[in-house]
Amino acid sequence: MKERYSGPPKIFIRFFKWFCDPRLHKYLEGDLFEIFEVIKKNEGLRRARWRFTWEILKLFRTGIIRSSNNYRLNHSSMIKNYFKMAFRSISKNGVQTATNIFGISVGVAVVILIVQYTSFEFSFDDFHSKRNEIYRVDSNIVEADVVMSRSKSSGYMLGPTLVEQVPGITTFLRVHPLESGAVVTYVGQGGKSKQQFFEERDVIRFVDQSFFQLFDFKLKEGNRSTLLTEPNSVVITESIQAKYMGSIEEPVGEFIKIDGGRYPGTFKVSGVLEDLT
């Protein structure tokens, strides 16, 4: 019958020989085996093996781990030789080297441009939770099977018609520009005109109620579920609030009057958005 092994764990003996500095190995190994035998005699084999393992793990530290200075010196010498060889090659084949460097530079520049472009495209308005379900409808003017022009505008009834007739389309959103400049007056709840501003066509947009069902622009004031649900209601941004109303604490419920553009009238503020960036 094969005799049962009663010595220290062999795997940790090999581990110790692997990391220990050869100059210290024979001294430390003797002490480890001596401690093992004493504990084995007094406390048993299992306890001795645990203690042996723990002592080896404690020795795995700077000063006892074998030095790697020789490897570092050799590594540094190899790097110096590589640079010398590269310099000699460049000196002998200047035209070919310049061509290779130019080609690599152009390739790296193209890759950087592609990465920058794609990262911008994929990060644009990526905070919208429904971004993968939202599509813009464009219009093409075609003559004799040739596309003469493209436009982001479409007919007023296209949205309701698509929802009614095309499976999978659940809602629609129409956006109308101001078309021209307009005078905006901050009226306030008291009904008295306070300040007037002239706004360009790009500042104001008229949208359907579904705007805040599709887009997740961050809301600062108001209730998202009731935004634009009332007729003649408006949502403004923080900067517009500061411009029109100054330091007023409760902008929701205030009124502004628009003279000019597609839909002139008096509008009630139902919410304030964080500035769009």
Summarize the structure.
The protein has 277 residues and is an alpha+beta fold. It is built from 8 helices and 10 strands.
How is this structure best described in words?
With 277 residues, this protein is α+β, with helices and mostly antiparallel strands. The chain is 44% helix and 18% strand. The strands form 3 sheets. Strands 4, 5, 7, 8, 9 and 10 form a 6-stranded mixed sheet that branches. The chain has a two-stranded antiparallel sheet with strand order 1-2. The chain has a two-stranded antiparallel ribbon with strand order 3-6. The protein is elongated, with a radius of gyration of 38 Å.
The largest sheet, given as strand count, sense and whether it forms a barrel, is: 6 strands, mixed
Q: What are the low-pLDDT stretches, counting only 5+ consecutive residues below 50?
A: none
- The counted number of beta strands is 10
Number of helical stretches of at least 4 residues? 8
Order of helices and strands: HHHHHEEHEEEEHEEHEE
Q: Strand portion, in percent?
A: 15-25%
Roughly what percent helix? 40-55%
Report the radius of gyration as a whole number of Å.
38 Å
Shape: elongated
N- to C-terminal distance:
81 Å
- Which structural class is indicated by helix and strand composition? alpha+beta
Overall pLDDT score: 82
